[in-house]
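Sample A.
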Amino acid sequence: MGSFYIDCDVANLRNTKRVVTVPKMLVDTGTESTWVPEPVLRELGIRPVKKDLVFQMADGRTITRSIGYAWLRAGDFETVDEVVFGQPGDLALLGARTLEGFGARVDPRAKRLVASGPHLAALACG
């Protein structure tokens, strides 16, 4: 599919007016979670709420990281999601859950995010 990078705005849910832009986040549909450098999250006052979760890396290693909650925006797309507190050496990643929350999909030819279409909903039967 090819990889590409986008800039992503991150904010604390309690103050979405104070935004930090994380440049060049790798859009990674093969990763579930979005990874943001810990210093960015700390600067925004985002605290870990789930600690020492185990992640399996692409090379088979397992590591532990903490997770917090953040507001995220890339272009016209925005959502609220869990974010991993990235450590030195970790990539800044925009994962599949955030893409789903954005209502976006990857256009592999243009290497950009596009609207994924109408949101699906269940029909109540009486």
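Sample B.
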Amino acid sequence: MSSWSIDRISAVTLAVRDMRRTVAFYQTLGLDVSYGGPNTPFTTFRVGDSAINLRHAPNSTGGRPDRMILRVRGVDALHGDVLEKGLAPTAVRDAEWGERYFE
């Protein structure tokens, strides 16, 4: 038996091409910058005791974009809020695994 275990994710770091646009997106969702900002190569948003980090990578080669899943209470209310803030999410759906979600 191992003497260690992983008990939570401390941070997720995403490579982004457009730091200014990506920071604005997360700020629109209501997150506050705790380090860096739209004009820096590295930015951190604290979310409880975890973090979302953005690393500027202007020459990343595309393909499927990085993806992060946030679990929230009130997904329908959040969906309405992001629509009101001018974002364009997909419709809220019921997944076969039992969650409601949107992208």
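B remarks: The helical segments are 19-28, 75-84. The CA atoms of residues 95 and 101 lie 7 Å apart.
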